[in-house]
Design a protein that fits this description.
Elements: E1 22-27, E2 48-53, H1 56-62, E3 69-73, H2 99-107, E4 112-117, H3 122-131, E5 135-138, H4 144-184, E6 196-202, E7 213-219, E8 225-232, H5 237-255, H6 260-274, E9 282-289, E10 295-301, E11 307-310, E12 316-317, E13 338-341, E14 346-351, H7 369-382, H8 387-402, E15 410-417, H9 419-427
Parallel strand pairs: 1-2, 1-3, 3-4, 4-5
Antiparallel strand pairs: 6-15, 7-8, 8-9, 9-10, 10-13, 11-12, 11-14, 14-15
């Protein structure tokens, strides 16, 4: 039924504005052209502008982002053409009486929707809200003030619903990403080893848990401890995913018995098959520590050399002159394995370039570099720091020198061997006689 009040002219999309003003799209079948809506009240100087559509096809053309609310007549012919109260001659059931509304909800997912029906059709009006309308109105009770309030209420409720849904989706997505990224971080496999392990990881991406840096540590059945740290160029999720693939491939190949040049050549094949473009490469540092813990093999693939500290001596870099290229740069490349002596008590720190490429001051362009890192670590050793405390202090100091968060990913791995502690543990084994305590020395502690 038409509402007996003066017709308002339809307003073009170019004339509509957002803010206090609102635009209403009325969808109602009115073949005689007499359909009217109440003259809407102007509260606080705000206006409600009206567009009209006589069918769903016309509504689809008028339904733009400038429309804030849709008023749909539930008696409007649905997309199939038959009305809700009609029955086909073949005896089949009439179509869903809310088909028109459901069609509008599908084509207007971001708009507030009001349902218009007869006052004796309260049940269908309630069903309209249940399936997605923000509110309903009865034709016989419709006036300008009621319609104006209903429009504003529906618009605010729709905005609140959208905001709540986006917030919920964001939280769920963040929780899923956090669970995924935590699951992708490695768990060191060092059972039965005399070495202690510590690591710190700080991705460069904002609010990320995982970046393009990766590391891992495993102990093979012969007692050898293998450690690795690497860096995929770039900082996005694709680089993080590639880093995880390389870490898992390294662990599988190491447990299968590969080491040195053969392992790195196979990892390069994995990288070449999995990378998004030929410009992507990865640096890598691997060490394999003998079962007695006194010597190790070192391979460098375009990666900074590890830092070592022995009891009573200042920390310094391991030799790095004979390294090979980064993975993915040169086909059929080779990576020589260099033998290094570790000694009885030592600490070995492996790191990515995010630790050394931070600026020394926020205003300057000078980088910390490897020499600056060595001096920084030695200063912390003089303070008696070691293990987890040393890694935390190193990452924190690098960040402070940079004047804020680092733009690159940072990963630091620390392996330690304390010969005196190993001997004490051996003397405290069952049926062993306790020996004299070692006197405390004034020597520099390991990392």
């Amino acid at each position: 039924m038409p509402v007996p009040v003066p017709q308002q002219r339809a307003v073009s999309a170019a004339e509509t504005t957002h803010g206090p003003d609102l635009t209403l799209l009325v969808i109602s079948d009115d073949p005689a052209g007499t359909f009217t809506v109440p003259e809407l009240s102007s509260e606080g100087g705000a206006r409600v502008r009206v567009r009209t559509a006589r069918n769903l096809t016309e509504a689809g053309r008028l339904l733009t982002d400038q429309v804030d609310c849709v008023l749909v007549d539930l008696d409007l012919a649905p997309p199939g053409g038959a009305r809700a109260d009609s029955h086909p001659d073949d005896g089949t059931e009439a179509h869903d009486e809310l088909a028109t509304l459901q069609h509008v909800l599908r084509i207007a997912p971001r708009h507030a929707v009001l349902a218009l029906t007869a006052e004796d059709d309260a049940e269908r009006a309630a069903d309209a809200v249940r399936v997605g309308a923000q509110d309903y109105l009865f034709r016989g009770e419709l006036d300008g003030r009621l319609l104006s309030r209903a429009i504003r209420y529906a618009v605010e409720r729709k905005r609140a619903d959208i905001a709540q849904r986006q917030l919920t989706e964001s939280r769920l997505r963040a929780q899923e990403n956090a669970r995924l990224e935590r699951g992708l971080l490695p768990t060191p496999l060092l059972e039965g080893s005399d070495l202690s392990f510590a690591a710190r990881y700080r991705p460069g991406r904002s609010r990320a848990l995982l970046g393009g840096d990766f590391y891992d540590t495993v102990r093979t059945p012969d007692g050898t401890v293998h450690a690795m740290i690497g860096d995929v160029c770039g900082h996005g999720p694709d680089e993080a995913a590639l880093g995880v693939e390389l870490r898992i491939a390294w662990r599988a190949l190491t447990l299968a018995g590969l080491c040195g040049d053969a392992l790195l050549a196979t990892l390069q094949e994995v990288l070449e098959h999995e990378r998004q473009s030929e410009e992507i490469f990865a640096t890598l540092c691997t060490v394999d520590i003998a079962p007695d813990g006194r010597n190790a093999g070192l391979c460098l693939a375009g990666h900074p050399a590890p830092l070592i500290a022995r009891q009573g001596r200042a920390a310094h870099l391991l030799p790095y002159e004979e390294g090979g290229p980064a993975l993915g740069l040169l086909p059929r490349a080779r990576w020589p394995r260099r033998q290094v002596q570790l000694g009885g008590s030592w600490s070995l720190m492996m790191y990515t370039d995010g630790l050394i490429e931070g600026r020394v001051s926020a205003e300057g362009s000078q980088r910390l570099g490897q020499d600056g890192m060595v001096a920084m670590v030695n200063g912390q050793l003089d303070r008696g720091l070691g293990g987890e405390e040393l890694l935390e202090a190193s990452v924190t100091q690098v960040r402070e020198l940079n004047g804020g968060e680092l733009t690159d990913d940072v990963a630091v791995l620390l392996l330690e061997r304390d010969e005196a502690r190993i001997r004490r543990r051996g003397r405290s084994a069952p049926r062993s006689r306790p020996g004299p305590a070692s006197p405390a020395g004034a020597q520099r502690p390991p990392l």
